[in-house]
Amino acid sequence: MPRTLAPGQRSRIHVLDVDTGEDRIVHESSEVLYEAPNWALDGAALILNGDGHLFRLDVEGGRPLRIDLGDLAPLNNDHVLDPDGVHIYVSAEDGHIHRAPLAGGGGVQITQDDGLLHFLHGVSPDGATLLYTGVQRTADGSWMPPNLFALPASGGESVQLTDDEFPDDGPEHSPDGTWIYFNSERARTALGQAQLFRMRPDGAGAEQLTDDERVNWFPHLSPDGERLAHISFPPGTEGHPADLPVILRLSAADGSGQRDLVHLDGGQGTINVNSWAPDSRRLAYVDYPTGG
């Protein structure tokens, strides 16, 4: 079921200038829990999900306008624009990844019925390859640790990129296609302690980028490839839950020079997908405050 707001809670869609610190609320809602903004390629609008649907929001303000995707199953908060600027890839509650026109219309299922739940996170710069997190249930109904996969954007067989006992998640290509950035618990000292990594597109040559007491998720490189944004959860957090005091952080592409951008109430839904504007200066995010 799509997430909903708690009594007295709001979802606020922000656009943050990471150079000047200007933080502008583009839209605020006490009715719809909006999540996971990414930018239209012309920089004029944000694409978000809410109530299981996809929405388009002008960055200058106004109300989010629903994109009609026909009878597609309700969406979760994993969606990535096709580099063609005409289509979008989305993850749905049927466990599959679909491709649909941004202008609206029915979607086409991309993933196969291979026993996995498929959570989309990235598309290669040339539009040829999707990256997703795959999760499988065991015979007793428990979840196995998620692994990372690559899939032809046109459909077909997936290639497994990671295979270990530690959860891996949030894979995205670098803008030049030479790296895949992701978060993983493979270096953890406590359950749930994810850090940021990058590896080559074939899964080799993994490098650790962060190493601190906090729980770091969803690395997003700016389109110019120079800056890395991620969300940092409090120590001891397991997974990437909602409604926690979290920090958006910025660093160089190799993880060095890390600094805090903003402290907020959020987590799940704040920046699950790449939220950088085409200008590599502005970052969109969602927070979920309660009270006044």
TrEMBL record:
Stretches of the chain forming a coiled coil according to its record: none
Lineage: superkingdom: Bacteria
Classification via InterPro entries: 6-blade_b-propeller_TolB-like, WD40
Pfam families in the record: PD40
Protein family (similarity comment): Belongs to the TolB family.
Alphabetical list of PANTHER family matching this protein: PROTEIN TOLB, PROTEIN TOLB HOMOLOG
Name of the protein this chain belongs to: Biopolymer transporter Tol
